[in-house]
Design brief:
With 136 residues, the protein is of the alpha+beta class. The protein has a single domain, classed as YjbQ-like (Jelly Rolls). The strands form two sheets. The chain has a five-stranded antiparallel sheet with strand order 1-8-3-5-6, with helices on one face. It has a three-stranded antiparallel sheet with strand order 2-7-4. The chain is elongated and about 50 Å long. Belongs to the UPF0047 family. This is Secondary thiamine-phosphate synthase enzyme.
Amino acid sequence: MHSELIEIRTGSEETVVDLTTRIERFLTDAGAGDGLLNIFVPHATAGIAVIETGAGSDTDLLARLRELLPADDRWLHRHGSAGHGRDHVLPAFVPPSTTIPVIGGRPALGTWQSVCLVDTNIDNPTRSVRLSLLQG
């Protein structure tokens, strides 16, 4: 098994960060063949999504999350910035991990799919993402 912890700078705004290029680099460096790649964000307030990016879907996702999980004072979990409790609910909707197949050293994603970090927590500007490759 090959594993690496990468650091992603998310800044101070809600964001969707495309990890696909970093994943491809990891697979190349690991000398990947066929296997499974697990992508895991070890944070209680972020998630991993497989979505299309660059055509508005990432912006749409953040807009829908704002509607579903508003940053206001309704949340019992209260520390950090206003509405931070909603960030702790996010992983129930955007899970903290996903596993994708790797074929011939490449992520077996669909034509328009990208693997993305989804982060609505504006209090943590840097995130870690664990990439773990299991080869057969």
